[in-house]
Amino acid sequence: MIHLTIDEKPIEIPEGRTLLDACHEHGIHIPTLCYHHALEPYGACRLCMVEILHPSQPSRLVASCVYPCEEGLIVQTNSAAVQRNRRMTAELLLGSAYNTPEIVALAEELGVKEARFQMPEEDSCVLCGLCVRACDEIVGVRAISLIHRGVSKKVSTPFEVSSSSCIGCRTCELICPTGRFSLNEITAFQGVPQWDSKYTRLYRQVFEDSDLRPYFVQDVSTLREG
Amino acid sequence: MQISINEIHDIITREALGEGSLIAALEEIQERYRYLPPEAIILASEQLGVPLSQTYAVATFYNAFSLKPKGKHNLCVCMGTACHVRGSPQLLDRLETNLGIEAGETSRDRLFTLETINCLGACALGPIVVTDGEYSGQMTIQKVDRILKGIVRAEEKLDAQN
Amino acid sequence: MLKIDSPAHLDTWRAELVDATDPERQRIAVCGDTSCRVYGSEKVWSAFTNEISQQGVDCSVDYDVKLTGCHGFCEKGPLVVIRPQGIFYTHVGVKDVPEIVSETVVGGRIIERLLYTDPNSGETIQQEEDVPFYKHQLRLILNLNGILDPSYIEEYITFGGYGSLSQVLFALTPEEVIEKVKMSGLRGRGGAGFPTGLKWELCRNQPGDVKYVICNADEGDPGAYMDRSIMEGNPHRVLEGMIIGGYAIGANHGYVYIRNEYPRAVKHLQRAIDQAEECGFLGENILGSGFDFKVRIKLGSGAFVCGEETALMQSIEGRVGEPRPRPPYPTESGLWGKPTNINNVKSWASVPIIFGKGVELFANIGTENSKGTAIFSVVGNINNTGLVEVPMGISLRELIFDIGGGIPNGKALKAVQIGGPSGGCIPAKHLDVPVDYESLNELGAIMGSGGMVIADEDTCMVDFARYFMAFTQEESCGKCVPCRLGTKAMLATLERICAGDGQPDDVDYLIELGNEIKSSSLCGLGQTAPNPVLSSIRYFRDEYEAHIMDATCPAGVCKGLITYSVIPENCTGCMVCLRNCPTDAISGGKQEIHVIDVEKCTRCGMCRSVCKFDAIKVI
Question: Which of A36, C47, C155, C309 is a Cys-bridge partner for C148, taking CB atoms 3.0 to 4.6 Å apart?
């Protein structure tokens, strides 16, 4: 067992877990965007930053979703430095996805009302990579990937044409935190007729309940059975 | 240039020495054809057992790979720091104006591809322009004009002969 | 070539090679580095080989007329050194060759016009070692660059090459090797300055049989080319270092990750690997020690981010060059999940020197916390562009003025950018700062890989910062939000300022944003990308304010804020600028004062470059 301190609370946690795991287990809220408990942590959105304090070195911010729990760590999840940083990250996201309700809400929750810099074009894809990672780790089809780099980075199929390997499971649509992802962009293929109808029914039913949206994808097979 | 599937297949087989050979295989194909034909990306994916989505992501991530065929003549302006303080942006400007294309593009007649590169490591000679693999140092706007004129004249001659 | 199967065999071979070299024989060293080749040095070298045989000189064409690695003084290329006298000729052309052979090689006479002239004293200097550029340097790593031909392993052996390896494999245990590297005080020369010995120890102590060593030869900083010169000029030294490192860590496989923009370096390195394998310095049972080690080259594919160690490993694994979160660090889980030790070219090249010349000698060079030498590529607005190797702790003033020869055209020094796109600028007032890791960090710069760009008074520091931001923005892998979107926001703000659209809050926004990007980016690229901007604001805030508040560019660079006009007193009416203007913005007849129409003028700079009378001014 590892012993560390989070927000002045002594925490005990088994080895091999991340700071975010520890926070979740002890009811400490950390905002996240690219994190999903069914997928390997990715560390891309940088909203989950927490501050690590050290007696003899300057403190620093680390991404809690990937940082391992270590013996004796002293962590602050909501210090001034953390808040400032989260607000800036939210502001940057807002500057890119300014018409996306989920991002506007996220920013407002952190106290950010407007972005000082706005990208010329609105893009509600925040490149959290959840769709790509789910297609890779859960579904195993790997029909999509992140192509190009920098601000040109985007989710796409090979050659940006209709995918021949997509099975129409719609995990990518379901897991997308901004609801931006549309299967139509990936495939013209309408899905296996038989389970498409049952699938659509369940999808619509659960999808409307947005609290559950990020969490139900873990068991795709239950969706199939309707 | 004719794409030979057999040739691509051979290149990939040759480079397939152990893990991580995807990039080496693509580099050789790029060198041979001066771009990556879609067939090459698909073949590499199949032969090396890498998902096509990953192969395509790799092909689009790195600057060395080009998915479109390049022009007959390649003009590359070094935009490294040393060349920058010696005036390379003006050289690029001049070429962009004269060729009517932006850096990274190929002219419509497929004669010219204009590129930039971030440091060739020959900083004493800056600013540098590489024309079809040949390095020219201490370039000025006049020298750049002259190189371009030279190529255009040579091409016109070829045209006239044909 | 014979396989060398024991230290004794190596000693015998070396003795034979040394014996066969007559120290009194004339040897002509022509610099064959990429820069000098552009100047035509390869033709000069061919001319020498022809001339030697034609004139029937007692000077072996194969061994004595060499195409060497970079001599360092790139500004004066093609460089030729005649030894053993050490006569140093600059700007040598093919037409000078017959004269050099008959006068200097045969006749022992100096050709004055080819000598280096000291710009301060006006005197010519004959000996290479007296040239101020070289005199103030301490060339440990680059010492053989202008002397040996990198195509022949025999040359490296003659100068003691692979002697350190031989000593290490038979006289020291891996742990002892690590201790010595720790005692030497060597710190990573890639820029971060992490203690090398400690890194090796961490890697060695990881469980597992399979480990890797990697040489990071990606050298992405624009303006830096010292790694290229070492790889082109003396690749064996790097290999020797890697083999020693592999032995110390317990790794049997090494990779050299080298950028594809360096074709000649790749060629020389591959040839060196092939020859080392033939001789038994690479492969199985090296020198009969029982230690196996193999090296392979992996080419970069045009991504600056792949100089970052985790992105580099992704690239070797055939993936997109996206960095991985750290921890775990590569020493714990690196290439294919195995413990991996990555070091820069200069770090590896320092290793054989530590064992060859001794730990004490190395540790006695430099300062308390920064031992050994540093290699800088000094480029930009400087008289003596080139590669310099200096002891850590030398002052910037000495480097720029005594070695670098000062600023050309009588201009004043404005700032020195150290560390490339990850570094910061140091203004002229801090010229007496010692060059070591800590001092540079305090001033807001970093040691970096060694790129040093000199900016004179005509450099706009805002434009300079914008240039670096544009570079990092383009090279960002795009994975994490602060770097991908943050650098875009910083760049857009800088572009607005340079275009004359700056807002009063912009500078504070840049500082705030820059600091947050540094704190939360995933990898070193994002964590250091704001540095050039932040340091230029720290020292040159007045320039930013001038752009924003007064809509002027004090240095006369930013196109949106300057106007070109003719100086009537100097204009002779020659019409050269008129004819060359791409937008026909200049009017005037023969011997009439010309006038520039500011509406049509695009500030391309053409008129300024063709005017022979200095009649165009920028305001």
Answer: C155
